[in-house]
Amino acid sequence: MSEGKEDFDVNQVFENLLFAEEQAQKSGYTDGYESGQNKLLKGYHLGYHRASLVAAQLGYYCGVIEQYLHSNKSANEKVISLANEILENIHHFPKHNDNTTDILKTLENIKFNEKLWDKCLPELLKSELDNVKTINDIWKENETVTQLNEFIKITKLLSLQACPMILEFKDIPEFLLNLDNDKWKFNEIKNEDTGFMSKKKLHEVEILGHVVGYIANSTGSLVIDAGAGKAYLSTYLAENYQLPVLAIDSSNLCHKAAIHRAEKMKKIGKQTSSLVKYVVTKIDDNTDYSTMVNIHFPNWNLKSNLILTGLHTCGSLAHSLMKVFLQNDDFKVICVVPCCYHLVNESFSKRINFSRNARMLAQQCIERTKEAKSLSPSLFYRALLQVLLHSMGLYNVRIGRGGPLCDFPTYAKWALLKIGIDSKKIPSTEILEELYQSHIHFKLKLNLFQILRIYISPVLEAAIILDRIIYLQNSKQCSKSVILRLFNPVLSPRQYAIVAIK
Which of 110, 157, 173, 473 has the least CB density, counted as fewest CB within 10 Å? Predict the structure, then answer.
């Protein structure tokens, strides 16, 4: 911190940024909407101020917030306080025309009561960011933005970058198997024969494949690829390390795609079919892997002779694999890459309880964002689309991903058609462009706010990953366990694997 300036509470900033997207909108919509139309306000008193629409909007907010307060009595104090503040403003909204009151301004104050920029950021940090002229300025080393630099420094210290448990790729043999690093040789494939994989997938399969292949050959183990998908990793291990692999997936579609890909591989001379066995079955805490190995590899000696792995084990799959690894004595090693944190809502320790928005944020990648030095225009387009939808009396609408990003009018028309709006009721290009121009001054702050949130994403990911490695350590069954940094985060944002040996 610079001398003479007041420190800000980074925990406070983190908490504010995490709760920025929390909205109480899962229930109470219907009752609130009807209340707004029929009871809360008498629309005809508001005349030309679009009375009915205003009443419906406020009724919606009122119903949602009242339902939230009723069903979330133990929620965060800040959220409760903010909800009560909005509710009070709604109840004090003028119910009759008043020459001394700007009704529309009062409505806007309620709708945008959150004012995230003002509420979530400490004054010193906010004042620095207010002087940022372009989004590129935030990536430059600048001694004048001391608060921002301190914030970034703290996020790095709280991320896995600074964690002493992190093992680098090159140190695997010595740490895990007490072998000489000179025997650890790895060269990424440079030819065009990628095995029908994208650049990202090839990068992941080669590196994780080398780790698993090296350990399996050193221990004489059979590999179980759980959540195998199209079996990219399975076939790579069989082809390059001559390992027997059981490729398991719960999706029948992925199972068929894996077999189809194997047939294509065979046509180009990749003879892996005899080493890889494909199984489609449900994968959970009770999956009997040993029986499947006995069926498909009847001559294999099971005892402590299996490796459990998974490339991007989505959601609860990582949890299930770790539990099974500890429960089944036939497993010697586990090596999994967790991902899709938003699909699992529990922690092993029960001490962290992130919201879905926070878990979604944990999947963001600051390295990739810094490499691009920009954010997708979809961020601002989606925010502006909400303004448009609200003006049309549409709430709680899900658009989903995708859409043309060449300009806002084109994106807005695509989105409105997608949700079933009659083309005759869609605003013209001129009106949509006018809406865009009238809000363009918010774009820089929106992007800066999002970048601050992305900076804390590795802190959230660290908490999630550490919770899982501590679970393995506390079991007392693992002789070694480590978080392994595997991938280039610009190519593959989920760069960490969890490795343990019994």
Answer: 157
φ and ψ at residue 351, rounded to 5 degrees = -95, -15
b/e per residue 17-45 (b: at least 16 CB within 10 A): bbbbebebbeebbebbbebbbeebbebee
Q: Residue 428 gets which letter from DSSP?
A: P
Whole-structure pTM value: 0.76
Are 477 and 501 in contact by the 8 Å Cβ rule? The answer is: no
| Tally: H helices and E strands in the chain | 21, 8
In this structure, which amino acid lies at residue 409? P
Beta strands in 208-323 (DSSP E): 222-226, 245-249, 276-280, 306-314
% of the chain surpassing 90 pLDDT: 40
Angle between helix axes 408-418 and 378-391 (nearest 10 degrees) is: 60
Q: How far apart are CA 339 and CA 318, in angstroms?
A: 8
Amino acid making up residue 187? N
* CA–CA dist 196, 210 (Å, integer): 19
Longest dimension (CA), the chain: 89
pLDDT digits (tens, 9 = 90+) for 195-247: 678 889 999 999 999 999 988 988 889 999 999 999 999 999 998 899 999 99
The tokens for 17 are 């940024």
Q: Which of 477, 502, 485 lies closest to 176 in space, CA to CA? A: 502
Domain borders along the chain are 44-111, 123-188+365-468, 192-339
**H or E segment and range at residue 213:** helix 199-219
Alpha-carbon distances, residue 228 vs 235, 344, 493 (angstroms): 10, 19, 19
Q: What is the DSSP string of 317-384?
A: HHHHHHHHHHH-TTEEEEEEEEE-GGG----SSS-----HHHHHHTT--HHHHHHHTS--THHHHHHH
First to last CA, the chain: 45
Look at the domain 192-339 and name its fold: Rossmann fold (3.40.50)
Q: Which string of DSSP letters, residue by residue, matches 112-141?
A: TTT-HHHHHS-HHHHHHHHT--SGGGGGS-
Structure tokens at 404: 């043309």
Q: Which residue has the higher pLDDT, 182 or 71?
A: 71
CB 489 within 8 A of CB 367: yes
For residue 460, which phi and psi values (nearest 5 degrees)? Answer: -65, -45
498, 483 contact by CB (below 8 A): yes
Give which of 423, 403, 422, 424 is closest to 414, Cα–Cα.
403
Is the distance from CB of 255 to CB of 249 less than 8 angstroms? yes
Report, as an integer, the average pLDDT of 158-182: 78
The predicted-structure confidence for 268-320, as pLDDT tens digits, reads as follows 776 656 899 999 999 999 999 999 999 999 989 888 789 999 998 998 999 99
